[in-house]
Design a protein that fits this description.
Radius of gyration: 43 Å
Number of strands: 8
Number of domains: 1
CATH class: Mainly Alpha
Helix content: 55-70%
CATH architecture: Up-down Bundle
CATH superfamily: Outer membrane efflux proteins (OEP)
Structural class: alpha+beta
CATH topology: Outer membrane efflux proteins (OEP)
Number of helices: 10
Distance between the termini: 44 Å
Shape: elongated
Length: 447
């Protein structure tokens, strides 16, 4: 009966918990962090390229033209040997004829880094930053999946509470009809009949208000999953066991799992390694740089000879270059100290995140335990409230009580059901929160 009522009330697209968990791994936030990981991966490839052979091809064609001109100057004609200061000068004329020539060149240069500490450590830093980006993406995936689970159970709770309120309104309708019949038969008072009608109206108002709660929960879940927010979703019953499972781990076991699986610790551990590599990059100004260069060159006045006849006019040369900055005005020292401070900051962040994760595991484990204990009380409370309503109705039918007593019992039962539903939902969300804190949610799926 409840399933038929829910179907009639919602008429929505069913969605299961497994669907929600799967789709959440591709929501907006998860996709954005995945793009950051892709960029970090490509940066690592870029850093790798700086250490690979660099090959350049050069080709040129030119023409030199010299116009005909005459150079008129003065030259020494003779010197008197008896008088060296007696020098005879004469005018000299030199004619330069018209000159034109082509020049073609074809060459290739290969450069290979033999030793460059900065480039080697930049590559190492890029690798660590890529690992950190992977950790960030995996951590966001955990957060996205947990939030999707929370929103799923928020919708599931709102829907089940709508059922409770609808059932309460149905009982109020039956009770109002009965109170009216008793009044008409002279066995009840008009006040009881009117009071029952007011209670029915209040219950119907609660149903309409709860519909708005369901609508908001549908929008929240659809938005997080990247679905159209106009799509009405129906949280399929996850078939929860009657007896909830106890906490899966002890505190020590949970902490061990978190240290191994929590992506945020991988992320900050990689950040520390990247900061250490960056410190070495900055200190590399004190080290020499060595590279090897091989050059092949052809040149000549004829294009056919240079660009087609490769058996002639070729020259090959090889060079090993060493560059060493002996003094840089203390720039290297300053940059190294800045990088060392950045490394210290990364270590502090790692230590703080380790403490945060330990705290999150403890809080999540305590929360799950508290919710499970509250659930036991809520289950017993619902049984007692049901018995209380049955007893009040029997007394009313026997004329031993008024509508107020029955109404009070109805409200208590509705509240007990709503509390049971909310507590059951909170227990499952707390269980997911514990798995998130340990890094095992979604079986530790990583991008």
């Amino acid at each position: 009966m409840n399933a038929l009522v829910l179907s009639a009330v919602l008429a929505a697209t069913p969605i299961s918990l497994e669907q929600v968990r799967e789709e959440s791994r591709n929501n907006l936030q998860a996709l954005l962090t995945e793009l950051d990981r892709v960029r970090a991966s490509e940066q690592k490839r870029f850093s790798t390229g700086a250490l690979m052979p660099q090959i350049q091809l050069q080709a040129s064609a030119g023409r030199t033209i010299q116009q005909e001109y005459r150079d008129i100057g003065t030259v020494i004609a003779g010197v008197d040997p008896n008088n060296p200061t007696d020098i005879t000068y004469r005018q000299a004329v030199t004619d330069f004829p018209h000159y034109a020539a082509n020049r073609f060149q074809l060459g290739a240069t290969l450069t290979q880094v033999l030793f460059d500490l900065a480039k080697f450590q930049t590559l190492a830093q890029s690798g660590h930053l890529e690992a950190a980006a992977r950790g960030t993406a995996a951590e966001q995936m955990l957060a996205s999946e947990y939030e999707a689970i929370r929103r799923f159970y928020a919708l599931w709770t709102a829907q089940r509470q709508l059922l409770v309120l609808q059932a309460t309104a149905d009982r109020s309708k039956e009770f109002a009809d009965r109170a009216q019949a008793l009044f008409e038969a002279g066995r009840g008072t008009k006040g009881d009949a009117l009071s029952a009608m007011v209670n029915l109206g209040t219950d119907r108002i609660n149903v309409e208000k709860q519909r708005a709660v369901v609508s908001q929960a549908q929008i929240d879940l659809a938005s997080w999953l990247g679905r159209s927010e106009g799509q009405e979703l129906d949280a399929v019953d996850p078939a929860l066991p009657d007896t909830p499972r106890p906490p899966p781990v002890t505190l020590e076991q949970g902490l061990d799992l978190a240290r191994t699986n929590r992506p945020v610790l991988v992320q900050w551990g990689a950040q520390v390694k990247a900061a250490k590599a960056f410190e070495t990059v900055q200190a590399s100004g004190w080290s020499p740089r060595i590279n090897f260069q091989l050059q092949w060159l052809r040149s000549g006045p004829e294009a056919d000879t240079v660009f087609t006849d490769f058996g002639r006019q070729s020259a090959v040369s090889g060079t090993i270059n060493l560059n060493w900055d002996i003094f840089s005005g203390f720039q290297t020292d300053a940059q190294t100290k800045q990088a060392r401070a950045q490394l210290a900051q990364a270590n502090l962040n790692l230590a703080q995140n380790e403490r945060d994760v330990e705290g999150q595991v403890k809080v999540a484990l305590d929360s799950l335990g508290a919710q499970l204990r509250a659930l036991e009380v809520a289950q017993q409370n619902r049984v007692t409230a049901t018995q209380n309503l049955e007893y009040a109705q029997e007394r009313f039918r026997a004329g031993a009580s008024s509508t107020l007593e029955v109404r009070d019992a109805q409200l208590k039962l509705a509240q007990a059901f709503q509390t049971l539903i909310q507590t059951r939902s909170d227990a499952e969300v707390a269980r997911a929160g514990l798995e998130k804190a340990m890094g095992t949610l979604g079986n530790g799926a990583t991008p």
